[in-house]
């Protein structure tokens, strides 16, 4: 795990769900049925059909393909920034990380793969809500979930190399002190058969503790943690390189080998390019399957750098702003951060051009995959642990009088141990989108919608039907009462803070392309 600091419930309308677990062959396996290719040809044919698409422009695309992502750091850092009385930089706002910060209550699979839930609602349905231009738009939700970790702790052992930023910027309250408290918590939560190594970095990197079994050594580990003090500049390159070296030295076959980076990610010494840093540890990542987990801290945080580093490092990132969040990450969610259920996981949603006129994936800009690479298992996807959920929201405009299939979602992943490819699918029809978003009892779908619309406001977006911040704050407060979920209450607080900082401006419904995928 990498800890760094830097300056500065089942919801939704009923869906016609088709879930078919099957072994899937990659390019070398000679797979025959490829529905995504057929859908792509249908999308191209729409131009010839004389629809609203221009005759001289590119053919409409009815496929949406992306790598799965369970990062939540963008939302955590946005909350911290708003709490400090500032609006977050629009470039640091990633809607999928806002949405994936909240429980959705999807049905879990019985095995080690994914469940697929596809549902949605009309944005301008009865019961009010929806901004301008909302009446003919729907919100479609694709939900993917893995099986939760065993309550008895039956998982493979873990070998974790913690790389801790002890640069001068970590001296601020809520940085190194929070990282140290997190490490003490981890030392108490890991099992006797787990192992831990500790590397620190400022202008240079230093191994404070080689890979050490927890059994009989917990006090020794805590003593090393207590000795950590802030030093000079931030050489993330040195820390990550040394961290991977120690992880390789302590590599244990058949266990979960992971580097955890704790930092504010304000690299200012050595190589400060994420891609360049990871090139130096590429062999360790590829030959040993060592993944990277980034934990960001600090009121000034290098969010884009950390996200790039963990995406390229086959991992994910989160942000902790206080001890409560640290405990959530290192106690409640620890199994999800140290164990893998799926490697190189991707999703592809094929929209039916007979019923769908336009659609837009909300977020995932940094995770898009070429449609033709969906079943190419050499193309990088996302790494997913137990108990994780991934939600993708789409703004969808149906054709007038449409009836029938709307979309078919497929998730593809590799088994972490055998590297065998698997797929699971789910689908939704027009009747599943008949209900109004705000009028039904689909509280978890509503929470996801509020989070997505909130993120869209913060990055000055133009999602169709997005309510104003004032209305979103009210809806979040009502949902907090309905769900009795403290995380939704904190969402309501954050929206209220943003509303006061920005003022109650209406949503912008700028025109978009008339056919196929938007953006």
List the helices and strands and how they pair.
Blueprint: E1 2-5, E2 22-23, H1 35-48, E3 63-67, H2 73-83, H3 95-99, E4 114-122, E5 137-146, E6 158-165, H4 176-189, E7 195-201, E8 205-213, H5 218-226, H6 236-249, E9 256-263, H7 274-279, H8 282-288, E10 291-297, H9 303-312, E11 316-319, H10 323-332, H11 334-338, E12 342-351, E13 356-361, E14 382-384, E15 389-398, E16 405-414, E17 421-429, H12 443-458, H13 469-483, H14 486-502, E18 516-517
Parallel strand pairs: 1-6, 1-10, 6-7, 9-10, 10-11, 13-18
Antiparallel strand pairs: 2-17, 3-12, 4-5, 5-15, 7-8, 12-14, 12-16, 13-15, 16-17
Helix pairs in contact: 2-14, 4-5, 4-10, 12-13, 12-14, 13-14
Features:
single chain; 519 residues; alpha/beta; 7-stranded mixed beta sheet; 6-stranded antiparallel beta sheet; 29% helix; 24% strand; globular
Compute the number of strand runs: 18
- Summing up helix and strand content along with how strands pair, one would put the structural category as alpha/beta
Secondary structure: helix percent: 25-40%
Q: Kindly provide the radius of gyration, computed on alpha-carbon positions and rounded to a whole number of angstroms.
A: 23 Å
Average pLDDT for all residues? 85
Uncertain regions: pLDDT < 50 for 5+ in a row?
1-57, 125-132, 504-513
How far apart are the termini?
34 Å
Shape: globular
The fraction of residues assigned to DSSP E strands is 15-25%
Mind explaining what this structure looks like?
By secondary structure, the protein is α/β, with parallel strands linked by helices. Helix content is 29%, strand content 24%. It is built from 14 helices and 18 strands.
């Amino acid at each position: 795990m990498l800890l760094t600091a830097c300056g500065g419930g089942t919801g939704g309308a009923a869906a016609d769900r088709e879930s078919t677990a099957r072994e899937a062959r990659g390019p070398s396996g000679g797979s025959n049925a490829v529905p995504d290719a057929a859908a792509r040809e249908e999308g191209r044919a729409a131009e010839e059909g004389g629809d609203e698409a221009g005759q001289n422009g590119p053919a409409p695309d009815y496929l949406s393909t992306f790598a799965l992502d369970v990062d939540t750091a963008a939302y955590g850092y946005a909350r911290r920034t708003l709490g400090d009385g500032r609006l977050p930089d629009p470039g640091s706002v990633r809607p999928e990380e806002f949405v994936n910060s909240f429980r959705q209550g999807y049905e879990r699979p019985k095995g080690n793969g994914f469940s697929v839930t596809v549902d949605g609602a009309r944005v301008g349905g009865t019961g009010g809500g929806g901004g301008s231009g909302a009446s003919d738009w729907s919100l479609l939700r694709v939900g993917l979930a893995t099986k939760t970790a065993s309550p008895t702790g039956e998982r493979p052992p873990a070998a974790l190399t913690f790389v801790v930023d002890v640069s001068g910027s970590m001296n601020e309250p809520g940085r190194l002190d929070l990282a140290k408290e997190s490490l003490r918590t981890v030392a108490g939560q890991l099992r006797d058969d787990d192992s831990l190594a500790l590397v620190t970095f400022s202008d240079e990197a230093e191994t404070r503790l080689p890979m050490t079994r927890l059994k009989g050594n917990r006090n020794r580990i805590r003593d090393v943690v207590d000795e950590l003090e802030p030093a000079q500049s931030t050489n993330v390159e040195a820390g990550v390189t040394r961290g991977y070296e120690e992880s390789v030295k302590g590599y244990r076959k058949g266990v979960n080998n992971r580097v955890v980076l704790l930092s504010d990610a304000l690299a200012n010494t050595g190589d400060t390019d994420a891609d360049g840093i990871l090139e130096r540890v590429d062999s360790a990542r590829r030959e040993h399957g060592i993944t990277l987990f980034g934990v960001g801290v600090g009121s000034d945080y290098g969010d884009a750098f950390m996200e790039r580093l963990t995406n390229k490092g086959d991992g994910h990132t989160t942000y902790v702003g206080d001890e409560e969040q640290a405990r959530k990450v290192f106690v409640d969610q620890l199994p999800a951060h140290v164990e893998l259920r799926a490697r190189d996981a991707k999703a592809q949603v094929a929209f039916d051009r007979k019923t769908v006129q336009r659609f837009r994936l909300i977020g995932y800009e940094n995770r898009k995959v070429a449609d033709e690479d969906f079943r190419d298992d050499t193309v990088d996807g996302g790494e997913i642990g137990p108990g994780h959920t991934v939600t993708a929201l789409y703004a969808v405009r149906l054709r007038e009088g449409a009836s029938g299939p709307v979309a078919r979602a497929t998730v593809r992943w590799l088994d972490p141990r055998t590297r065998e490819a698997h797929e699971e699918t789910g689908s939704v029809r027009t009747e599943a989108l008949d209900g109004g978003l705000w009028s039904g009892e689909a509280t978890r779908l509503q929470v996801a919608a509020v989070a997505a619309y909130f993120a869209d406001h913060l990055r000055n977006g133009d999602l169709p039907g997005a309510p104003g911040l004032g209305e979103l704050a009210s809806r979040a407060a009502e949902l907090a009462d309905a769900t009795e979920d403290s995380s939704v209450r904190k969402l309501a607080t954050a929206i209220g803070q943003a509303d006061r900082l920005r003022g109650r401006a209406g949503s912008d419904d700028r025109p978009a392309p008339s056919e196929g995928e938007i953006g």
